[in-house]
Amino acid sequence: MYLEVEKNYSLNTLTSYTFDLKLYGEFLTANNRSLDLDEHTSSSVRRFVQDLVINHSIKPRTIQRRISCLKSFSKYCLKENYMKSDFTAGIQAPKADKNLPKYMTLQELQKLFAYLEQDP
């Protein structure tokens, strides 16, 4: 509700964040780590990210979203006093892959100019 009402996040983001939090919880459980909020550390988050990269070949943009999700969750938990310290402190998201712009070829430019020079 906090993300939907106060932060005005889209339904897509809310759905993705729900999935990301479940995935993080499953990772903690599978690795015998506590689900107690005060026992979460930045080390756990780093291992989670490492697992995503090594074992699941997750793209940088997805990792960015998952880290963003955990940061939002941590910030909310701190605000509501559900925990004492930020377990995402010091965690930085990787740089996203940037697509290079596509340029027109010389022939495409010539075609465009020829079209624009025509009388209507």
Topology, pairings included?
Elements: H1 2-6, H2 11-30, H3 42-56, H4 60-79, H5 106-117
Topology as a string of helices (H) and strands (E): HHHHH
Q: What's the gyration radius in Å?
A: 22 Å
Low-pLDDT segments, ≥5 res: none
Q: Report the principal-axis shape.
A: elongated
Strand content: under 5%
Q: Helices and strands: which structural class?
A: mainly alpha
Average pLDDT taken over every residue: 88
* Main sheet characteristics: none
Helix content: 55-70%
Structure overview:
There is one protein chain. The protein has helices at 2-6, 11-30, 42-56, 60-79, 106-117. The protein is mostly helical and 120 residues long. Helix 2 (11-30) packs across helix 4. The longest helix has 20 residues, at 11-30.
